[in-house]
Fold this sequence. Notes:
alpha/beta; 7-stranded parallel β-sheet; 3-stranded mixed β-sheet; 11 helices; binds uridine-diphosphate-N-acetylglucosamine
Amino acid sequence: MSILVTGGAGYIGSHTVIELIEAGYDVLIADNFYNSSPKVIDRLQQITGKSVQFCLCDVCDEKQVDNLFSRHKDIDCVIHFAAYKAVGESVEKPLEYYSNNIGGAMCILRAMKKHGVKNFVFSSSATVYGQPEKIPCDESCPAGSATNPYGWTKVMQEQILRDICAADKEMNVAILRYFNPIGAHPSGLIGEDPNGIPNNLLPYVAQAAIGKFDSVRVFGDDYPTADGTGVRDYIHVVDLAKGHVAAVRKLYTNCGIVTYNLGTGKGYSVFQVIEAFEKACGKKLKRSILPRRAGDIAENYADPSKAKAELGWQAQYDINDMCRDAWNWQSKNPNGYKE
Ligand code: UD1
């Protein structure tokens, strides 16, 4: 029995591979390094002390994917991370996002059908809630109002998975809606390594702390929140990774299709995140207050109680742990995986 992790060299994928190996699963990574580095594979081996199986594979290439399943008959579960994830870029390049994200998932699901693999974990996002109907937001909130093509690829794939499960009662699917993953493995050997100027808050703050930017951009301080800045549910990437292990265990009980929020249930503002990071790195960070970013909402955090009740999973790390581990990674690898 082995678990195929597509995009296993990426940020969330790599952390999940470690937790799966530590839980005793055999893992096979498939990645084309489009947005990740081959160095991750060595680092995973260093962290786990095990050799990590890897296959260079583009999930959109039907032949490559079919070959992979033909050569690895023991795959009985797929965790599908491989996808594009930049919101702004998706607005510029919708065709690329729909082709890659939906096309890649379709290719994997077709191969699973052909080879009789019935267990699938899908990386979804809190972005599917759009402006959530209520906060904290639980899984019963309407999810289908994305505001950009990236978000729509998640909404559409969730629907495709529901249709597939309705037609095939042997399929087990866990849709995991991530809130805002940050932090890094405590070893400091793997972490988030965005290309170019980071879109997300935490990598921007971390790169400001290392001296790449002279201030932290704050997108709006006039939201109806306690300090005026946007509030989000930041979750340590190691907690998120453990959530995937819990989801795999759930699939092996033949659960059919299940959907879970993976968040901590606590919201932190941009200013609170900056303050926690200042504590972690031991320096003050300059702030530049800019206008609100288009498409942003004031506040969103999860009600994670369904995952606790049904998966026995709950986030363990707090915002200080997240910032400490993000800083450990950033300070040890100022240029990420690049030389
Ligand atoms: C973003 C995406 C979401 C995606 C998630 C992946 C948008 C609108 N949403 O979520 O679809 O699933 O990333 O992690 O892009 N902020 C700053 N300065 C910055 C960057 C962000 O003040 O330099 C603020 C934002 O306004 C927001 C908060 O920090 O209030 C978090 O932003 P970000 O890290 O980009 O995450 P989301 O927007 O929640």
